[in-house]
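Bug #2210: token dump truncated for Ligase-associated DNA damage response exonuclease?
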Amino acid sequence: MKNPLLKFTDQGIYCEPAKVFLDPWKPVDKAIITHGHADHSRWGHQKYITHHNNVPIVKHRLGAVNISGRDWGKSFTINGVKFSLHPAGHIVGSSQIRVEHKGEVWVFTGDYKIEDDGLATPFEPIRCNTFITECTFGLPAFQWRPQQEVVSDINQWWVNNKANGHTSVLFGYSLGKAQRLLKHLDPSIGKIYTHGAVENMTEVLRPIVDLPSTELITKDTKKEDLLGNMVIAPPSSHGSTWIRKMVPYVTGSASGWMAFRGARRRRAIDKGFVLSDHCDWDGLLQAIKSTGAEKIICTHGYTEIFSKYLREIGYDARTENTQYEGELAEIDIEKEKKETE
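Reproduced locally. Full output below:
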């Protein structure tokens, strides 16, 4: 039996002919990185390769690392293996990695979604023999409503809170979800304030994407300034001393997990909005079908359930263990704590 083009090792996903890792979770010499979330982009590699738009994100999170950027669809060769990066639609700068060697093509998705959110470069289906897919929300119960409907609900919630004299505090991950929310909030309703972690990451992304103006919450910000306005903050700030300045406030959370009954209650959230940067059940199936792949490898999420279903409908599907955690791992908690005013 020949060696697979990509192997799952204790350091990460390894391409042996090229001697390069994809989103490794332990320090390696050379790493190709799909996107900037902490579970896929880790500190300690000697050399990082990623999409141009992800370069400033990685530098902001990891510091002065040795990193180079690539364009969408432009092939580059390492030890005779051809690689290229293609839009994953997950967050700004997120890529799928196409790997070609001796007539065989594999695609590693990292994290992805197929709905165009108006911010990230939309997902591009790539034909391949083997497709490595996340399945963070790989259950039939996960069915997303169109983004515009959810955004309309969020803006109306803000209007209602303002009419009741409350500050709206909306939780979303500092990289990705926060900027997606900012992009679609209606600034005619009021001012948009931000937590330090959100503001800092948003400033990194402003040269890349068009976002509305925001105002950083500092020690000098008065709660009277916030009344009736919107505050975007990371989930880690909920229950902290920082949020006391918002009183009286109403909380909301934008996450795919809000589709689960009880998730809002467990997180002590007043209002849940089902908005994810990952595919729902139908999105995963549509993405897989669009690749034409015969072999599917399922990682992080509902891997056993999803791969079993894929086998039932005719795919050669299996699971592999990784240290990626999908939407659970998008909170860089320690960094956000340090940036809390």
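Output looks complete on our side. The chain has two domains: 7-141+277-331, 147-273. Marking as cannot-reproduce; reopen if the truncation happens again.
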